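Help needed: design a sequence for this.
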């Protein structure tokens, strides 16, 4: 009798498996698209730029293919050390992928993407162009944009999708599945992400921080899970620290009589509980850690390489 794992994969040698890196400017919808392709929320999404900081792998099956989608931080002109780490990690994943999908916000056009397009020429992977947010744009504008971008770089195909509504996502996934190389699956059939639960929980809290706080503050904060304790009643006790740069920022995160942190905690707790399918007791602490953006340990916690100099 066949092993269940083999049965799921079909005849030996018939499987495919590959890495698809999604790159593009901040806020174009890369994380929304990874979540849509996986069919589950593995990467956080906010209306703010520079939400994703490290590589998040979302894993999906399509027929006999296992697709490993690599969500990357948006590519932009980096200023701070953290920015450099984020942009560097995005390009690194493009170098390693079998397929690179350049995601463009169709509403904005390609104004921000000149530098990305130039550098794309050095990437050996198969390249596809994905115009996202087509729900916001008229058809003639889309066709003109597709033509312009295809003149700038060599793409194997162009897709027009809405990651938000799901329009065109299944076609895109099918295209990837047909083109990743033959080979064994790298992850168990039921795995949808490589993000450890502690990190996922920290990311969810960071999403709520981004949604709740304004201007520069979200960018000057980071979240770490310090304690993860399974309780006898089946619930989990999670303690997290939100690091900020200054005392004035700590006060804003706490809010009047702790109202802001309470609201962030309530939203995060609900989402973490839904993600891990367990009741959660969430405890948030806010600490000032001046210069955390230059502390190698914080980068290790985020899964980023620490850029020197
Ligand atoms: N209308 C519309 N909005 C979208 C679509 N896809 C994403 N968005 C929105 O665009 C915003 C940014 O989405 P993200 O998925 O966080 O973008 P990202 O490219 O991962 O951004 P960074 O992580 O900052 O690089 C969010 O408010 C999304 O809801 C789409 O197809 N249509
Ligand atoms: Mg993102």
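Sure. Designed sequence:
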């Amino acid at each position: 009798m066949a092993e269940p794992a083999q049965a799921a994969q079909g005849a030996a040698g018939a499987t495919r498996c590959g890495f698809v890196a999604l790159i593009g400017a901040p806020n174009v919808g890369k994380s929304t698209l990874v979540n849509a392709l996986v069919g589950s929320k593995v990467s956080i999404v906010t209306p703010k730029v520079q939400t994703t900081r490290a590589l998040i792998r979302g894993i999906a099956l399509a027929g006999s293919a296992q697709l490993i989608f690599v969500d990357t931080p948006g590519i932009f002109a980096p200023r701070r050390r953290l920015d450099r780490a984020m942009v560097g990690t995005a390009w690194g994943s493009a170098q390693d992928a079998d397929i690179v999908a350049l995601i463009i916000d169709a509403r904005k056009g390609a104004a921000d993407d000149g530098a990305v397009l130039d550098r794309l020429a050095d990437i050996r992977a198969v390249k596809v162009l994905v115009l996202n947010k087509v729900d916001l744009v008229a058809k003639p504008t889309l066709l003109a944009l597709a033509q312009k971008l295809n003149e700038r770089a060599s793409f194997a195909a162009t897709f027009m999708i809405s990651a938000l509504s799901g329009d065109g996502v299944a076609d895109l996934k099918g295209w990837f599945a047909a083109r990743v190389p033959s080979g064994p699956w790298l992850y168990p059939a039921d795995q949808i992400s490589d993000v450890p639960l502690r990190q996922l929980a920290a990311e969810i809290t960071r999403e709520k921080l981004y949604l709740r706080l304004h201007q520069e503050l979200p960018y000057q904060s980071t979240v770490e899970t310090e304690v993860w304790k399974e309780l006898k009643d089946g619930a989990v006790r999670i303690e997290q620290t939100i690091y900020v740069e200054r005392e004035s920022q700590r006060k804003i995160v706490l809010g009047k009589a702790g109202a802001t942190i309470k609201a962030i905690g309530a939203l995060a707790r609900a989402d973490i509980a839904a993600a891990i399918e367990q009741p959660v007791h969430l405890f948030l602490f806010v600490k000032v850690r001046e210069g955390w953006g230059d502390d190698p340990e914080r980068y290790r916690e985020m899964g980023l390489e620490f850029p020197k100099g």
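Strands lie at 16-24, 56-62, 65-71, 99-105, 126-132, 157-160, 222-230, 236-244, 280-288.
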